[in-house]
Amino acid sequence: MDVATHIEALRMEGDHMAAAIRAADPGAPVPPCPDWVVRDLVRHVGGVHRWATGYVAEARTEYSPTDL
User: Fold this and answer.
1) Helical ranges in 1-68 per DSSP H
2) Residue 28 in 3-state DSSP?
3) Could you give the CA distance from residue 35 to residue 12 in angstroms, rounded to a whole number?
4) How far apart are CA 35 and CA 42, in angstroms?
5) CA 24 – CA 33 distance, rounded (Å)
6) Tally of domains within the chain
7) What is the distance between the alpha carbons of residues 42 and 48, in angstroms, rounded to a whole number?
8) What is the model's pTM?
């Protein structure tokens, strides 16, 4: 996959996730994660995206113990 196609796929999937979040009750359960509600899932996914963005923005190539 070329970079432009990959970026477009990320944008489209992000739009789909945003629409699902807007439609969901923040307190609704997340069946695959029995101890979580939608709010927890959104917080987790947002954290993963911020972590990945940091790697790209800083051109990081190695793990840092502060990543988790």
Assistant:
1) 3-23, 38-57
2) coil
3) 29
4) 14
5) 16
6) 1
7) 10
8) 0.75
